Amino acid sequence: MRHTLAVLVENHPGVLSRVSGLFSRRGFNIESLAVGPTEKPDISRMTIVVEGDDYVIEQVSKQLNKLVDVIKVSDISSQASVSRELVLIKVDADPSVRSQIIQIVEIFRANIVDVGKNSMIIELTGDKDKVTAMEELLKQFGIKELVRTGIVAMNRGS
Amino acid sequence: MRLTGAEILIKCLEEQGVDIIFGYPGGAVLPIYDVLYFTPTIRHVRTCHEQGAAHAADGYARATGKVGVCLATSGPGATNLVTGIATAYMDSVPIVAITGQVPRNLLGKDSFQEVDITGITIPITKHNYLVKDVEKLADTIREAFYIAKSGRPGPVLIDLPKDVMLSETEFSPYDPKKLSKSFPDDTALDLRELDCAVNALNESKKPVLYVGGGVINSGATEQVVELAEKFLIPVTTTLMGIGGFPGKHPLYLGMLGMHGTAPANFAISHCDLLIAVGARFDDRAVGKFESFAPEAKIIHIDIDPAEIGKNIHVDIPIVGDVKKVLEIINSRLEPIRQREWLKQVDKWKKDYPLKYCNNGKLKPQYIIEQIYELTDGDAIITTEVGQNQMWAAQFYRFKNPRSLISSGGLGTMGYGLPAALGAQLGRPDKKVFNIAGDGSFLMNCHELATAVNYKLPINIILLNNQSLGMVRQWQDMFFGKRFSSVNLEDSTDFVKLAEAYGAVGLRVKKKEDVRPILMKALNIEKPVLIECVVDPDEKVFPMVPAGGALHEMIGI
Questions:
Q1: How far apart, in whole angstroms, are the C-alpha atoms of residue A30 and residue A16?
Q2: Is residue B356 domain-resident?
Q3: Contact, B70 vs B100, CB < 8 A?
Q4: Which of A75, B312, B325, B334 has most Cβ atoms within 10 angstroms of its Cβ?
Q5: CA nearest B122 in A: which residue?
Q6: Mutation test of the interface with chain B: which of A12, A25, A68, choosing the one with the most B Cβ atoms within 10 A?
Q7: DSSP A93-127
Q8: ipTM for this prediction
Q9: Are B198 and B329 in contact (CB under 8 A)?
Q10: Domains identified in chain A and CATH numbers
């Protein structure tokens, strides 16, 4: 099962390598990891998506909690939460197919952020399913490059 | 008061009560050595190799319960500490390692003797620091000591660029309220789990206590003895737990695991309740995980929540300091008078004692028994790794906690001699023996020079079987007697080697000479090496083959 962990850490150099090293060393797989400062500049927040059963998630959380730079670990997958990911997709777009692509972009409420002679860059924000669906539709035109930020997630307000 | 970084470091060490550090000078730590030159309160012990300094700090910490400190220069000095730090990490030993680093403006430029030691030691430290700002130095050192000794102890490394050692800042003495961070000491005990544990104890007919190194770290020997005696529970210990329960106690079964005693392993395999106290279900203790204590409910008491359920499913987890937990449990149990189960356990003890064949050759087990008798179980024994280590664990009956000092988790050959130096310096009142094999001894034998230099009256019992005995044993039993690269025959004249270093070298070849020579050695106030030429075919038994269940022992 896939779990999303919100991990608050001290905003120090080297914290990312402590966390990622822990995962590789103990054989846990990171599906995605996103990190950035929070509303408090000395605290960063990592959103880590991990694939694993209850044993793995329990061990991941406990081992993370042992790191001195880790302030709090919460598994937010079981709670009501919002998760988003941003993707940039560079797609082959010669003039004959541009309008089709623009239609798809509109349906997904994505944005075109760059247009070249034969390509476009599309920016899309959404959860995993939305991103996958869009990617599937754009495949027919030829995807030249694709980059994802990794999921960021937050609990809903009560 | 304005001080340099190096002065602040030494001031903070003094604040922490450090009176001895083990180290080796070098370019990037010159400013620290310059301050040490004027610091009579801190004794610096220079080993021959930084690995020795790390092990000596570790041996000191294990023998005294205080934080051990080691110091090395940047680059190779720092990397030479790595094995020592990893050894301490695996066995939860509190040490603070201080390394010099190239000046800040040279960091990241592959400068001379630069190495990313904080990066290298992330997986083998509880935490580490690269201090780039002299303002933060004092609090970093205080935090490092706190982390090293709190909760489950472990090593912490502080990497200090040379120019930070030379920068000046205002130093303010330690104010306990000001420690920048607070760490949860031990979380509130879960009372429900405690109830469950007490109920399980009351319901149990065949309980066993499985005691690990956590009991020694927590100082909980008295509580374990009380629980065992009050509730008539037989006790087995891991290698790390040896000394955590008196070795001659009638309820003691000896060590469990791969080379554990038959009574201990049988008791585990037949018990209906296993109380694991400060132990971590290591593969060498447990054998085949699926067949470990198959009939038992398991209570696991440990200060590290991550150990609960890591290797084995636990029925009743209790996270907390084992001493406090046992105090509560003991207060809630009514003593019992007799227990049927002990009859079975005593029968195993009678039928399957530790034994070895007395065929006239000099046997290593006999030598260790003699040391035990001469010292009444009261000496500090450090070991190397391999057969020597297992025989010491089996045949010396340790009376006190902190008296077996051995690399359990990492299994570091070459650990025992430098650890003996640290132990002797920490406990000058104790007799210290280093039980060694010829292979292990050669790994760090240069530390004999340190022993001589500092006039440490340690006794090295070199069990010379002219081979890498434990590897040879495995080759003999599981690799068709193909003795690949384990032969050390006629390699070194150990008596001459000892003499070359300025120590006393003695040699024993016959059983009847063992006792007189040991008695002679005990009266020499210098380092003594006794080379014991032992039967090369002697093996460590019992033995549970790798991956086997505990009751499937060979050689009982």
A1: 13
A2: no
A3: no
A4: B325
A5: A18
A6: A68
A7: --TTTHHHHHHHHHHTT-EEEEE-SSEEEEEEEE-
A8: 0.91
A9: yes
A10: 2-75 (3.30.70.260), 81-155 (3.30.70.1150)
Expressed as residue numbers, the domain containing B319 is 191-351
Q: Is B536 exposed, middle or buried (CB count within 10 Å of its CB: 0-12, 13-18, 19+)?
A: middle
Q: What is the pLDDT of residue B537?
A: 94
Helix axes B341-351, B262-270, angle to 10 degrees: 150
Bridge partners (DSSP) listed for residue A123: A88, A111
Beta bridge partners of B46: B23
CB count in 10 Å sphere of residue B117 = 27
Going through B102-171 in order, the beta strands assigned E by DSSP cover 127-130, 156-161, 168-170
Cα–Cα separations (whole angstroms), residue B462 to B45, B407, B438, B465, B507? 24, 17, 6, 9, 9
Give the burial class of B224: count Cβ atoms within 10 A of its Cβ; 0-12 exposed, 13-18 middle, 19 or more buried: buried
Q: Which residues of A touch B147 (CB under 8 A)?
A: 68
For residues A147 and A87, the answer to whether their CB atoms sit within 8 Å is yes
Instruction: Measure CB to CB from residue B119 to each of A17, A66, A67 and give the nearest one.
Output: A17
A144 vs chain B: nearest CA distance in angstroms? Answer: 36
Answer yes or no: B38 catalytic: no
Please say if B50 is a catalytic residue: yes
Cα distances (angstroms) measured from residue B71 to each of B93, B113, B491: 16, 15, 33
Min Cα separation A11/chain B (Å)? 14
CATH of the domain at B72: 3.40.50.970
Task: Provide the domain count of chain B.
Answer: 3
Please indicate whether, in this complex, the C-beta atoms of B119 and A59 are within 8 angstroms of each other: no
CB proximity under 8 Å: B 291-350 to A = 304-306, 308-310
CA–CA gap between residue B34 and residue B163 (Å, rounded): 14
* Contact criterion met (CB < 8 Å) for A14 and B126: no
User: Residue B309: which of A17, A18, A58 has the nearest Cβ?
Assistant: A58
In the β-sheet with B68-72, what is the strand arrangement from edge to edge?
B43-46, B20-23, B68-72, B95-101, B156-161, B127-130
CA distance linking residue B247 with residue B228, whole number of Å: 13
User: CB A25 to CB B123 under 8 A?
Assistant: yes
Q: Is A68 in Cβ contact with B126 (below 8 Å)?
A: yes
pLDDT, position A145: 96
Cβ-defined contact of B306 to A14 (cutoff 8 Å): no
Render pLDDT for B210-225 as a digit per residue (tens, 0 to 9).
999 999 999 999 999 9
Pick the catalytic residue: B7, B11, B16, B50? B50
Taking only the tens place, the pLDDT of each residue in B339-384 is 999 999 999 999 999 999 988 899 999 999 999 999 999 999 999 9
Same domain? For B330 and B375 the reply is: no
Q: Are residues B206 and B275 in the same domain?
A: yes
Structure tokens at B479: 């690799």
pLDDT digits (tens, 9 = 90+) for B36-81: 999 999 999 999 999 999 999 999 999 999 999 999 999 999 999 9
DSSP designation for B307: G
The CA distance from B47 to B418, in Å, is 8
